[in-house]
Amino acid sequence: MPGPDGRDDDADALDAQAVPFRPLSISEMLDGAIAGIRRRPRTSLGLSVVISTVIQVTSSVAAYFFIGDEAREELTPEVLLESLGAQLTLTGLGLVLSAYGILLLAGLLAPILGRELVGMPIAPKQAWRDARPRFGRLVVTAAAVMGISLGALFLPTLPFFLLLAVDANPGLSALAAMVGFPVGIGLMIWLYLLFVLAVPAVVLERQTVVGALGRAVRLSKGRWWRTCGTLLLALLITVFMGFFALRIPFLLVQLLFFGDSSGAESTMGALAVDTLGRIVSWSVVLPFDAGVIALLYMDRRMRREGFDLELRSKRYAAARSATPRAHTAPAENGADPEEGFIELWRTGPEPARPETGAHP
Predict the structure, then answer these.
(1) Dihedral of the CA atoms 162, 164, 170, 171 (nearest 10)?
(2) Any idea where the domains of the chain sit in the sequence?
(3) HSE of 203 in the Cβ direction (CA atoms, 13 Å)?
(4) pLDDT (tens digit, 9 = 90+) per residue, 79-122?
(5) Whole-Å CA distances, 21 to 24, 78, 225
(6) CB neighbour list of residue 345: distance below 8 Å, 6 or more residues apart
(7) What letter would DSSP give residue 326?
(8) Is the pTM of this model over 0.85?
(9) What 3-state class would DSSP assign to 360?
(10) pLDDT tens per residue across span 241-278
């Protein structure tokens, strides 16, 4: 029964969680992502280390063999210009792989933050157990979000590259670049933010890939600028921590031990230190960005569909029944506690609550 102040005791308990069970402000989403890492460091950082290691090692191996022997031995102006295109390509590839890793991690961490949100216990390896049935769809959904965004960037810039290929008038090529690149970048950002919530939706709601993309569009409707502002702040924090603060010690080691050296061995040593620095820095910042995406999805569920009000009206029956013993033995009524958590997030063809009854 509600207490003297009219609040349910379960509501007080859930509000005391690291992630408050109510619509979140931008600062609360940023703080909640950090709190999620701090409260579950082995899960969040462990998954992040695996993803970051694969991404950064792949980028380093590609850099060593793609730039060329001459660029590794002597950086003359001619050689530098010849290798510039390769370096820009590798930089773009690294950014695309990092963005893809963030999307994968957002889907893997969504169940952990979801359990934190509703006050359900979190057993070891819980993230993998919740995400494993839809891991294949998560991989495809993250690839679809990246593919749609990159396709939106490529199509408006295609005339510029075609004009370059046929040696067209330089003025016409410049005009195509001035129009195509701003339009392409704008479309890429718009579509990425429009579909980014599909990643947690495909895991928590057990949606299909197409269903998750459509679900993201419905949840993002009318809130695109809020999503943009939140992820922009998260990106600024990520850039500062990932490219500057956490990389400085490794850059100093490179300068001290390999700054005046030349040859293949010195190149390999400097590249190894740089790779290790990128693995460490991205392992720390990737869970932050991924957590913000997952919390954005949960905030949209609460604001648009009144997800928190719906569960409070049911007196958190599912949260109270999911005791720690439920993770080691079947529930007395034969229900699967893991599936019970997912059932909290499932939706039918229509929104769980009408827009008028949800939060503003």
Answers:
(1) 30
(2) 12-357
(3) 29
(4) 444 455 566 677 788 888 889 999 999 999 998 888 888 777 77
(5) 8, 59, 23
(6) 114, 204, 205, 301
(7) G
(8) no
(9) coil
(10) 777 777 788 878 877 776 665 656 666 777 788 888 88
